[in-house]
Amino acid sequence: MNATDPAAIRKGRLKLLLVASIFAAPLLVAFALTLADWQPGAKGNGLPVLPQRNFAQEQLPVRLADGSDWAWRDSEPRLTLVALPGPGCAARCYATLTAIAKARVMLSRNQSRLRLLYVGTPPADAQHDGMDNYWQIGQDVDGKLASWRPQQPDSVGALLVESNGTALASYPAGFDPSGLLRDLRKVIK
Questions:
Q1: What are 81-132's pLDDT values in tens digits?
Q2: Helix crossing, 91-105 with 177-187: angle to 10°?
Q3: Are residues 16 and 96 in the same domain?
Q4: For residues 145 and 65, what is the distance between their CA atoms, to the nearest angstrom?
Q5: What are the C-alpha distances in Å from 176 to residues 59, 88, 114?
Q6: What is the spatial order of strands in the sheet that 114-119 belongs to?
Q7: Cα separation of 123 and 162, whole Å?
Q8: Beta-sheet pairing, 167-171 with 114-119
Q9: Domain enclosing residue 51, as ranges
Q10: 43 φ, ψ to 5°?
Q11: pLDDT average, residue stretch 58-77
């Protein structure tokens, strides 16, 4: 075969283009998916807190039942899940709080890396049902968490706060506790 044979040159170029397209195809598909705003596994179930807020820097006071203030900046690398009840927290609200506590337990050996803070009036009979076994109960002294508090009766919303006091994600009323657990497993390792 002659190196200057036009048929051989075309055949060699075709092979080169075929090999190049095999490597370029995944890049083109990834670029198209990114333009379409589709990225697998990149989105959490909570809504990002924008603009970002740091409760420790803002010195946002939450008064606990014993009279002390909640320490937003934790001494250990632990996240805080803040539960904010709507008016009249009752059976449905309590069921969501129980599901959140179960999600914490399902973190298994990492459950100590998540603190649970309930901010508001506890549901009726919460003490008899052992709510204080899982939750620290406090009050929003200045009402600065009111924008995340749901307005629907017998509901609860939540905020996920980093150990330095930065609010990461908001979970509005009606959120799926199993989606919250998936998010917690991503950030607590």
A1: 999 999 998 889 999 999 999 999 999 999 999 999 999 988 876 655 678 8
A2: 30
A3: no
A4: 18
A5: 30, 20, 18
A6: 47-48, 167-171, 156-161, 79-85, 114-119, 136-140, 62-64
A7: 26
A8: unpaired
A9: 47-187
A10: -105, 140
A11: 93
HSE-CB at 19 with a 13 A cutoff on CA atoms is 6
Query: pTM (2 decimals)?
Result: 0.76
Domain identity same for 19 and 84:
no
Are residues 55 and 145 part of one domain? yes
The vertex-149 CA angle with 64 and 68, nearest 5°, equals 10
Nearest to 114 by CA among 70, 163, 69: 163
24: its two tokens: 């370029």
The answer to which of 39-43, 59-63, 98-102 has the lowest mean pLDDT is 39-43
Verify that 141 and 89 share a domain, yes or no: yes
Please, are residues 97 and 156 in contact by the beta-carbon 8 Å criterion?
yes
What is residue 162's predicted lDDT score, i.e. its pLDDT?
Answer: 94
Whether residue 143 is found in the same domain as residue 58: yes
Amino acid at 122: P
- In contact, 126 and 94? CB cutoff 8 Å: yes
Two tokens at 39?
Answer: 């990225």
**CA-CA distance, 48 to 43, in Å (whole number)?**
10
Q: How far apart, in whole angstroms, are the C-alpha atoms of residue 157 and residue 173?
A: 5
Domain co-membership, 115 together with 180: yes
Name residue 20's amino acid. A
| Count: domains in the chain | 2
Which CATH number belongs to the domain containing residue 166 in this structure?
A: 3.40.30.10
